Amino acid sequence: MKRIAAVVLFFFAASASAQSFHFYGDLSLREIYVKSQPSWTQGGFGRFDVGADNADDHRYVNVDVLQVGADWTPMTWLVLHADGLARKEQSGTTGRRAGLVQAYADLQTSHLRLRAGLFWLPTSRENVDPLWTSRYTITDSALNTWIGEEFRPIGADLQWSPNFYFTVGATAFRGNDTMGTLLAARGWTLGNRLTVYDETIAAVPDTTRPIGSDLDHRFGDSGRIRVQLPERALIQVTHVDNRAKLLLLNPPDTPWHTKFDVVSGEVGSTSPTTLVAEWARGTTEVGFPGGSFLLDFNTAYVLLSEKIGTKDRVSARIERFATNAEHGHAWTVAWLTEANPHLRSGVEYVHASGNHIGAPDPRTAGSTITLEVRYRF
User: Fold this and answer.
1) Domain boundaries, the chain
2) Residue 9 has pLDDT above 80, yes or no
3) Model-level pTM?
């Protein structure tokens, strides 16, 4: 018995001696020229996080975002993580100026990882840098813009990686019952605005709360399979179903039953030239007295990025998107340069086209030119 106690004490002492704490973040300062309708964030139908007075107008807008995160490893097999943000946005934006983005605990071995809390699913091939940021562009694709706005599981995710080449994962989650509201209300958009926990945001003509308390006491689920050649290429297939019950509740807590599939791939993961692509398709359904409404949606993008030397990166992305109410496409060109490991600056042009039949002015096309300076710490 004494030997067992000694072994246990030695194990915990060794684990505790390996503990570490890491605090990090970035401050992004953006000056944006936008030619578009009023932004969806202000209750309009514009396709960007910022907007002007009408489809023929333009405006200069300043947006500043501070993101911070912390990782604590009290034991070699346990990691505790939290991150959040604070932001300065265009006047009239509906939503919180600060809040929690993630908070979870990881229990891990060499082949298994159990994550519990509020977290991103590992689907995006763009947002692969810390704090779910993109190393390729300033503005995310339509797919990952939507993920950032409406989908963040609150639950548990079990991931098994028996070797370097194969990974499977399964997730049970709650608190995403209104997911799909934005696609039905205003269609696909382009931006990088992350919804924080329990935030109410615009969803013309009402509002929605994408990430918060569970409404129907049901668990949603997700599963994924990834096959990869380490540091060279990968392909992943993910299925998500929030299994929301079509309750007749008022905004911002109106449930939408949303299910979708994402197929993502990457070539040249660590090489100077990287090719990334994602495709998603799904449906979202809302109930009303006497029936329901079903919306089909799909989107796809291809991104090519070239790292030039040690400081510069040039990226180009083309994409298309569609729902029952719209069909459109967009293209993005970005140049980012790093003066040092802490300071990144860049310029980006985005043009989106496509009309939305539900908008008072269906001309929801537009463009942005963004100058950004980002300080990492």
Assistant:
1) 2-376
2) no
3) 0.93
